[in-house]
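Box S1 | Example of a co-folding query
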Amino acid sequence: MSVTTTRIALATGAQLHQVGLGVYQSSPGVATRTAVTTALELGYRHVDTARIYGNEADVGAAIKASAVPRDQVFVTTKLWNDDHGYDAALRALDASLARLGLDYIDLYLIHWPVPGKRRDSWRALERAFADGRARAIGVSNYLAPHLRELLGQAKVVPHVNQIELTPFLQRRDTCALCREHGIVIEAYSPLTRGQRLGDPTVTAIARAAERTPAQVLLRWGIQHGFVVLPKSVHRERIAENAAVFDFTLDAAAMTRLDALEEGLATGWDPAGAP
Ligand SMILES: NC(=O)c1ccc[n+]([C@@H]2O[C@H](COP(=O)([O-])OP(=O)(O)OC[C@H]3O[C@@H](n4cnc5c(N)ncnc54)[C@H](OP(=O)(O)O)[C@@H]3O)[C@@H](O)[C@H]2O)c1
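Box S1 (continued) | Returned holo structure for NAP
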């Protein structure tokens, strides 16, 4: 089985697949290597990791061992909170590249809007972008106020903002600001970490579409123009989560899903971050 997917263009001109494999809480070692190997076999060409996930080495090893050329896989990793600051951020990127076994990263993100040093960290990412160690740079968990602060100082507008997004948490003001500035929006925890897969509206739409609730949530994100980053370590689910390009949710279904906003943050909520 292979995956048909659409691609989204970054401001850099790079194209990334709209479905990427997330590996947060994929255990380091064989579990992550198998998940990435499986995803590449099934046609995924986009993997989202982070230093704090502890599995960069496994992501890199699986890519290297695969038949897929490096330049056809889009790899993201992220700067963790204790690596902020200009020099520290550049050192952290080099350390991530070493663990991944790569000489450049397709996308390097500031993982959280840590107060104090995040401006210096952004200058470091701009430097990494200029020298080619990072082919694109961006942020994660930046809500509208964090983004406005960054846009006030940035020489390079972030190419991506990765935030938690589902019908149950839509961050409309942040998404509008991203669109205004050409920042590609990536939706993390797009399956609500399983917490709303049994929601009656989602399950009813899934039944009508002859799809699974997970596929409905992913399709909702895709039709809003987001990149979606579902995580699974199971082959059937990795396949299921990418089989979302041969059906469409009609306007009525999208409206019903859009009405599910409830401010559900399944992880830490950056709304509280100064
Ligand atoms: N930037 C950030 O701060 C941040 C934060 C959180 C996440 N992320 C990124 O986003 C990715 C996804 O987020 P997430 O891992 O928090 O949550 P998620 O993708 O919403 O949910 C993952 C959970 O759903 C299960 N699952 C996967 N596919 C399924 C399916 N088709 N049907 C039923 N259950 C399914 C997985 O279990 P199995 O693995 O057992 O299948 C896992 O327990 C992460 O891996 C990471 O790359 C980024």
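The mean pLDDT is 96. The first helix runs from residue 30 to 42.
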